[in-house]
Amino acid sequence: MGKAHPSNPISGDPKQSPPQTTIPPGITENSSLDKANTLGIDTPNPGSRSRIRISLILLALFLSLFVAALDATIVATAVPVITHELNSATGYTWIGASYLIANAIGAPVWAKLSDIWGRKAIMLAAVTIFAAASAVCGSAREMNVLIAGRAVQGLAGGGLILLVHVVISDLFSMKMRSLLMGVTEGVW
Q1: What would the pLDDT profile of 157-167 be if each residue is shown by its tens digit?
Q2: Tens digit of pLDDT for each residue in 9-18?
Q3: Which of 120, 148, 172, 186 pairs as cysteine with 176 (C-beta 3.0–4.6 A)?
């Protein structure tokens, strides 16, 4: 029997070469993108955005998260004054509850919409709806209008809170993502 060739241990024939794998153009065999894709990690091109642009994106994300978190928590301290001004004690619990319930309902809807139409468009829509609902709440003269405004605000706030995390996950590598997720918890 013949001795197997070290380059092709399967067939034992030194004339046959091992099967070649085709690598797409622009990707080297040892590229980090190739290794990351095999692990299922999305690695964006770090050189595509400047430090200033990344800083501005993070500032906008953190500010929108801060406003949504602030609306979820700070209104509770003003509820006694609000109910007194609007002469309605029955809406006392619904001012906060309508926001939080709508917040929980809205998050999965915003996530699916951002999958369909893109993160940027849906994030801007959430910010716009949140600002419009805040204007409705600020100008409310009746408890029902305030509760409805808070519910719409909660829907948009759910989108803001969720989309901040989704956008950070899309833009940054696994290494930076954990740090930035920690910062988002600090912003909250």
Answers
A1: 999 989 999 98
A2: 454 555 555 5
A3: 172
